[in-house]
Specification:
Blueprint: E1 16-18, E2 28-33, H1 43-57, E3 66-69, H2 73-85, E4 89-94, H3 99-107, E5 111-115, H4 120-135, E6 138-139, H5 147-163, E7 171-174, H6 180-192, E8 197-203, H7 208-211, H8 245-252, E9 258-262, H9 264-278, H10 284-299, E10 305-310, H11 332-339
Parallel strand pairs: 2-10, 3-4, 3-6, 4-5, 7-8, 7-10, 8-9
Antiparallel strand pairs: 1-2
Length: about 350
């Protein structure tokens, strides 16, 4: 273990863990568990990078309010960074996202402005742009900011290359969200491990990249409205209702070798399986990415190394359908265990 000057020094260096019970025999299936970041998601990396880059450039002034549109993870990471560095933070978030995320950000000192669910991610983004312009706040622009993929090129990719040094990494599987992980890691793999096939997963009901339809954009790269192929899906933060500029740039760079679609049901089933059969506690987006990795593993050659990104922890999904059939009270089986010895009185009938 090490000593750190503050919590921000603990971001990154997340473990790669072997899957032992869920993958097909003869294939080496690995997961990179980003829940080990201090606030539980891969977006901690992005949050630190966009703030420190803006500090160095002078774009972010001491004491200036920071603002961002988020489905939760980026906002939670920014709340940690801003709390440690002393910046006020305002986040906009569609009211459809889990209440745990709102509470986590508020607990860390951020202000959370909710936008109508019907307006989706584009609605919360439009509100952010409006508020930033009206109040002179620093807008971190996670979907367009080059500091986002840069941190993954500098940290996430280097960790992966070190973890597979001397071996062949045959497949790397990821969702895209903002596109920062995809583009940053993808650039390094294309340059230093060209044999690695980059597999990108999307919801089957919102296969924006697979549709081939362009994303309308403003001159600054922000989306000009919702993508025509988007439909609602349960993977919060995994695929917004537009193709972010950073993701679009990754497509233009031809970093992606294959697109895979995943159902919401498979995403939640894989999240639960990771918990109950591997002891790995992650959210719906991680389950979705893992479901895509299982599709890849089913046809991979014997001995292949497959690495799957697991973006966040499961704790911020407690109020979502992922936990919909997990009871708070004792089940009949648990009551039977209680009653199997004479001491005490059951707390539930």
């Amino acid at each position: 273990m090490a000593r750190y000057g503050n919590i921000l020094g603990t971001i990154g260096n997340t473990p790669v863990v072997r899957i032992n019970r869920l993958g097909p025999p003869g294939v080496n299936l690995w997961v990179k568990v980003e829940a080990f970041n201090p606030l539980g998601s891969v977006k901690d990396r992005l949050a630190l990078s966009v703030i420190e880059t803006a500090e160095k450039s002078g774009e972010l002034k001491p004491g200036q309010t920071v603002i961002e549109a988020t489905s939760g993870n980026t906002g939670i990471g920014l709340a940690m960074v801003c709390a440690q560095k002393g910046y006020p933070l305002v986040v906009t978030m569609a009211e459809s996202f889990s209440v745990e995320r709102r509470k986590l950000m508020r607990f860390l000192g951020a202000k959370v402005v909710l936008t109508p669910a019907a307006l989706g991610a584009t609605g919360m983004l439009d509100k952010t742009i409006e508020l930033a312009a009206a109040h002179g706040w620093f807008f971190t622009r996670q979907f367009e900011n080059d500091a986002n993929p840069a941190v993954h090129e500098r940290t996430t990719a280097r960790e992966i290359m070190a973890d597979f040094a001397g071996e062949t990494l045959d497949y790397w599987v990821t969702g895209y969200g903002t596109g920062g992980t995809l583009q940053g890691v993808g650039r390094v793999l294309a340059r230093e491990s060209p044999a690695t096939r980059i597999i990108v997963a999307e919801p089957d009901s919102a296969a924006l990249l697979a549709s081939g339809l362009p994303q309308p954009r403003h001159d600054d790269g922000t989306p000009d409205g919702r993508h025509p192929a988007w439909k609602p899906h349960p993977m919060q933060g995994w695929t917004p209702d537009f193709i972010p500029k950073i993701t679009g740039d990754a497509v233009a760079l031809k970093l992606i070798h294959q697109l895979v679609t995943v159902t919401g049901a498979d995403a939640m089933a894989c999240s639960r399986d990771l918990a109950t059969k591997e002891g790995i506690f992650v959210g719906i987006t991680s389950g979705a990415t893992f479901a895509a990795a299982l599709q890849v593993a089913a046809t991979a050659k014997p001995g292949a190394n497959i690495l799957c990104m697991l973006p966040d922890t499961g704790e911020r999904y407690l109020s979502t359908p992922l936990f919909g059939d997990i009871p708070a009270d004792m089940t009949e089986a648990e009551l039977a265990i209680f009653r199997s010895t004479p001491h005490g009185v059951p707390t539930a009938a």
